[in-house]
């Protein structure tokens, strides 16, 4: 079954973490077992989901420990020691993850597949309905690892003059990864316009340009999220929008519910 989903865009600040966090809760709300995996050394998703646990136990340590050549240089660490349990579970990231590329530069094992093999061997895929990966704003080795381990990607973007460039680079990277012939074949689940203000002509123009670029794949374009103060308020309180009962949150919950439903539909095809 398809279950590993990455939130990707090399552009920073487009809402990857915010959408990953709330979508994870939307799926948990439907009774799904969800694991969030933070693959961003900034650790934003870890901050939102942790309750002050130490970041020394992080995905970096687990990945390094999964490599024969490096294992002996590092303290052994179990997945269970790293997992932060909650409504949705978390494997956190710390600043140490920024040294990943350098640390693994000499290993024999195919470097793009380190995360994929770790996930397969860890037993985590059997324990969760969905694994949601939050990616850093780059197209470096960490993101390549995420894509190779992923069944489907969600690309949040802001409809501005740079977004088409970002979407083009992303399509190119997907094509390159598929061409590598290493068995990675991630599907696009959705391109999600975020922080939309469609009253602005320039945004409408940018959105049309992107739709023209993706052409026949237009069905991938989601309804999108407007700029909602509720989303920001929830993030500031380290809560998902589903933790709020007031009426103002109803439309945002519905929007995240719709993205959750899109994922469910994709996963069950
Ligand atoms: N729809 C929205 N409405 C209002 N604020 C939003 C919305 N989406 C995201 N934000 C806010 O925008 C900021 C950037 O979002 P976020 O950190 O999720 O982006 P990101 O793509 O993960 O950034 P980075 O590339 O640095 O990891 C955050 O303060 C977030 O709370
Ligand atoms: Mg982020």
Architecture overview:
The chain has 269 residues and is an alpha/beta fold. The chain has one domain (3-267): Rossmann fold (3-Layer(aba) Sandwich), CATH 3.40.50.300. Helix content is 44%, strand content 11%. It contains 13 helices and six strands. The chain has helices at residues 16-29, 44-49, 59-65, 68-71, 79-82, 100-103, 114-122, 124-127, 141-148, 163-179, 201-214, 229-236, 250-268; strands at residues 4-7, 34-38, 89-91, 130-134, 152-157, 187-193. It has a six-stranded parallel sheet with strand order 3-2-4-1-5-6, with helices on both faces. β5 (152-157), α10 and β6 form a beta-alpha-beta unit. α1 packs across α13 (250-268). The chain starts with a strand and ends with a helix. The structure holds adenosine-5'-triphosphate and magnesium ion. Adenosine-5'-triphosphate is lined by residues 12-18, 40, 42, 44, 137, 194-195, 225, 227-228, 231-232, 235.
